[in-house]
Amino acid sequence: MTCSQTNHFKKVKLFTLICCFFTLLSACNVDNDLRKTRDELQAHVDEIENIIDLTSLRIKPSNQSGKNDFDEKDENNFTVDLVKYFTVDQFASYIQKNEQIDAEVIKPNNLIKVSVDVIDLKDMLGLEIEDNSLIANDPTFIPTSLHFWDGTTLAVNGNYKTLDTAKLDEENADGSQLGYNEFLIPSDKSVKMVDFDVKFRHKSFTGYRLDSVNRIVKTDGAQIEWRGNQNGEVKVSYPKAIDNRIGETFGFYKNGKMLKSSGRTSYSIPSITVLEWAKKSLPIYQKAIDLMDKQELKSKQEVDDYLAKNLQQKPVEKDAKTFATTFYSGPVDYIMIYVENAKPENVVKKVTLKLHKDDREWFNKGYFVAKDSKNKKYGIVDARGNWIINPTYDDIRAESEGKFSVYENKIGRVRKLDVLNKKFVALRD
């Protein structure tokens, strides 16, 4: 055999090996695709069978309350941990009556803080707290007017700083970050009251009562139904479309006290139309798997063609339902279920908040502890913002009857304010 013949033979052999390799690779890919298709079909079959089983367990209405061993005298069975889900008007009225402001003079500014905090807001409005501890869609407090102790008023007109997503690194005059509901407002007078516009962007909640007599309520066109009540387990159903709008469900004993809850489960089932389609489709999916196992369907394309030829088009899902069970510590007489309203409340409410009643820290007979933002030292100002005691002290805390605890080099002494001579007078021990 000549050299050229040998080289030709080697090239043919190499080409044949390459062809065989790609043929095997293609066959492996086909097998992998087919195996993946089979696994997906089997998972789909399992899902359909599970849905059919769940639907067969549809809850029949029941009036039984159970829990014969329930001790109504045991306070551990009850709770007052109620999310109030205030409306906008209720919230505005509540903070007007119950909340106050803390106001600190940091010349030439006032640091104003609304007492209500994020946890209170969650309890009152049913809002979610995000990872950064600020509330999504929280009510926004906007100061509009300051009322001072000397009887004058100042319109804020947007001239303030506060913490928001655009100013997370903003710092106030003494170097610390402003928190939720804190405002730094240019004015060196002491504040007595603040007018706020409170902007609401959240979706409010409406509460609905359900019991064994009043089994059905309607909200935004959706129907919620009381399905069962036995052994402290209350079952309700509602359209799956409002699943993400369902808030808390509270169970109440016959004396009106709220029962403790130990959790909630839920599952969704399709509409009757989709369910009938699933039942008819199930044997077709199972047949496709059987044909794949017998190697009568040898590729993903053949499987797709088989299903397209034999399956009816899936109907559009419109009436899927969610069935939810809430577990309570005792027999339930009725429940209150809260549903987020479909339309958000984008409204502004005006409120006026007064200085904290017990705030002697900053106010003492018309004189106020103030901090100089430049040297970080403390002094005393009058109602008009004039220095009575220059800011030369490490800290000053108001006591009573014109007395102040004055700190120098971290050592505190109680002294009396001599307004006329603009000095502190040391008291006898």
Mean model confidence by pLDDT = 81
Rg value: 36 Å
Would you report the number of β strands? 24
- Helical amount among residues, as a percent range? 10-25%
**Shape category:** elongated
H and E string = HHEEHEEEEEEEEEEEHHEEEEEEEEEEE
Molecular structure report:
By secondary structure, this protein is an alpha+beta fold. Among the domains are: 3-57 and 273-305, no CATH class; 88-203, no CATH class; 363-426, no CATH class. It contains five helices and 24 strands. The chain has helices at residues 3-56, 88-98, 118-125, 272-293, 300-310, and strands at residues 101-107, 109-114, 140-148, 153-155, 161-162, 182-186, 191-200, 205-210, 216-219, 222-230, 233-239, 246-252, 261-269, 321-328, 334-340, 347-354, 363-364, 367-372, 378-381, 387-393, 395-398, 403-408, 411-418, 423-426. Strands 1, 2, 5, 6, 17, 18, 19 and 20 form an eight-stranded mixed beta sheet that branches. The chain has a five-stranded antiparallel beta sheet with strand order 9-10-11-14-13, with helices on one face. A four-stranded antiparallel beta sheet has the order 4-3-7-16, covered by helices on one side. Strand 10 and strand 11 (233-239) form a beta hairpin. Helix 1 runs antiparallel to helix 4 and helix 4 runs antiparallel to helix 5. The longest helix has 54 residues, at 3-56. It is elongated and about 105 Å long. The chain starts with a helix and ends with a strand.
